[in-house]
Amino acid sequence: MSTAIDNIVNQPYKAGFHTEIETDSMARGLSEDVIRTISSKKNEPDWLLEFRLNAYRHWLTMTEPKWPNVRYPKIDFQDIIYYSAPKSKATKKSMDEVDPELLKTFEKLGIPMNERAALAGVAVDVVFDSVSVTTTYKEKLAEYGIIFCSFSEAVRDHPDLIKKYLGSVVPYTDNFYSALNSAVFTDGSFCYIPKGVKCPMDLSTYFRINTQDSGQFERTLIVAEEGSQVCYLEGCTAPQFDTNQLHAAVVELIAMDDADIKYSTVQNWYAGDENGVGGIFNFVTKRGLCKGKNSKISWTQVETGSAVTWKYPSCILLGDNSVGEFYSVALTNHMQQADTGTKMFHIGKNTRSRIISKGISAGKSNNSYRGLVKVSPKADGARNYSQCDSMLIGDLCGANTFPYIEVANKSATVEHEASTSKIGEEQLFYFLSRGIDSEEAVSMIINGFVRDVFMHLPMEFAVEATKLLGLKLEGSVG
Amino acid sequence: MIIKNAATILSVHNLVASIDGTQILKGFDITVKAGEIHAIMGPNGSGKSTFSKVLAGHPSYTVDGGTLEFKGQSLMDLEPDERAKLGVFLGFQYPVEVPGVTNGSFLRLAYNTVQGARGKDELDPLEFDDFIQSKLSLLGMDASFLERSLNDGFSGGEKKRNEILQMAILEPTLAILDETDSGLDIDALRVVANGVNTLHGDSDAVVLVTHYQRLLNYIEPDFIHVVDGGRVIKTGDKSLAHELESRGYEWVLDENRSRAA
Ligand SMILES: Nc1ncnc2c1ncn2[C@@H]1O[C@H](COP(=O)(O)OP(=O)(O)OP(=O)(O)O)[C@@H](O)[C@H]1O
Ligand SMILES: [Mg+2]
What phi and psi values does residue A209 have, to the nearest 5 degrees? Predict the structure, then answer.
């Protein structure tokens, strides 16, 4: 039976193709010169170059974090290509000018770049290697005063906003990878929702790493002004290479009074092969600041790819009555390793947070939940509920839970529940004895397991994510 | 009910089976015909559940010898799901809990798979909801059970009712019910027994594994088999159950030992 389980979870990666496209790539390696070149390629203002150089100098003083429960070979930061972009003459004004090879690539991935063919009601910013290649529905959104564009355009067109908020939630000093990202980031997405505006459609960014040995260092910055609402989706894939690629992104969210940001990710970076060769190192810093009273930030993530994942989308609950949520499904298979979770910092009064984490481990993979709930002395009436469930498929994988709870206010309520279950022979036999084959049984059990998280995904994304889990789990039964 | 010239549903001869290298079934024999109800009794650890699981095709057991035929067809090379589609049903002594999978969606998938294999139309959730109402009331179960996770947090008795609910929707030709009576209160026992009696007809057969005569007051068996050491050592009619209830197993085991000597 365990071979049946093995076959079920051993699925080829369908986004693993590579696009032949002419690129403008810099030589490998990192130095102040490289950073100056990136900055000048992007015609950046001096203050931004200064920001990058400060980050770089700080980074040089730092060492890689060793505390995550993951093992990987030492990364040679001089062996990474820090800038790679599809060759283009000028920025694209419309979709018709985008390289047909690129259009084809995204079509193959099921990401519509053409507004006419687009998913109804979703605006997409598409990032290919180091640069954003297009953003859809920009004009329509502009009618509402919403800014949704690539980070580079935002630097050019809205420098005041970027200057004000860049690094305000995740300073470059925060950690090793946020410092690196701040030094070399090349593009990403920016959205700004003005006061009182409910964003009329979901906004999304799709990240694709194409070039072998290039890193992807993008930044996402979302600012939701008083009383505004936005729902943001993020997806990502990469071709199959036998070398590792580094993805070190920084995402910053800021929610003012009564604002509401919902951020969903479906992460499907290439995970490496069954022996652990190749795959993306996904070292990401995501943090939201609930700055205003009654503000709310909700993270939902479905992590299925990457060789190594290290990420903790967090919320700083500064405003009174603000709410932070974290809903996560992390699936690891083969030799994949994930150390993921969240941090909830309760600072304002009556702040609330809710954590639902579902880890699924198969093959020889290792899946850890790591979470911090911190209640500061002034956070009267703070409340947290955490639930961390792990599911093991087979006997060779591992699951760990590292919940850290620091409470400095007596009126706070913090609840933590955890469980570990196993899709074992007895469960499968029960389904089989009712006529249901192993494949359907596993998919039913997994879908049941992740239900509490998937119900927080936007409808279309939930369908995608269910398909993706299915893909990772379906297969011939041996 | 014993019917003259009834078709043979289950025919087991000299069945030998082991788990992790330990032989548990050591020459098990039983023949069950359409319309009949059989009871299997015997001391703890004698191999009753093992026989039930081997019959349903549990992958942990290896069959080392003998024959196992269902309606004249050998079950040996069939996977458990194929056996289920043919009409073999095992009511588990310990039904597993599956958090997150709703009972209703599980039951519907089981129905569509098993009954679909027999040529019936698939039922969508609404149709299934209509279909299952009468089965729920037969077993005195509330519709809220469909919304709950499969067996998760069910009481012992509720799990057993849920097993018989599955029997009701899958309409097996052969149902082997492993200690369905244990864990049931007196009223529940009556309800479940009545359910089994209602479901049982002339063209199917029921095998009850039980420790107690009490169940057999409600479901009247045609044959009683006493199992010990992985084989049937005595077969009788329902009066044997009364005798076992008053005298225990020791005399049957003695009888068997002296026969062997
Ligand atoms: N993996 C195993 N290795 C060795 N022996 C086993 C294994 N699994 C079960 N057994 C043994 O097989 C024997 C038969 O067990 P079985 O569950 O069939 O008994 P039973 O007749 O159903 O008992 P009860 O009346 O208590 O339900 C027991 O002695 C049990 O310990
Ligand atoms: Mg038993």
Answer: -95, 125
